[in-house]
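User: Mind token order:
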Amino acid sequence: VQLVESGGDTVQAGGSLRLSCAASGYTSGGYCMGWFRQAPGKEREKVASIYSRDGLTWYADSVKGRFTVSRDNGKNTVYLQMNALKPEDTAVYYCVRSVQTYGGSRWPREVNYRGQGTQVTVS
């Protein structure tokens, strides 16, 4: 499975961006897809995830109420709508995919694939 992110950009604080992640290759079956981010000098932070079958989502406390994760199963694509962006949201955002099909409103136990990342800068 290959994951390709897009949508990263530079925006002013308070602005919005939508990231997309398209999966290709062997994509049949259920899955969980999500995003984590990493800023220079900081630890990796899980951001949000969504399960393909039941649509249950999970969010980090730092983004709740501002970010929304969604998926289009027909397009094998997951989105991250980011509103009310803050300078502390600046990071490289990575798309991830797990073969875990169900997991409640929790980050998957294991990530199997990761994209190359897309830069989000909030000034």
About this structure: The chain is about 0% helix and 50% strand. The two ends are 34 Å apart (CA to CA). The longest strand covers residues 17-24. The mean pLDDT is 95.
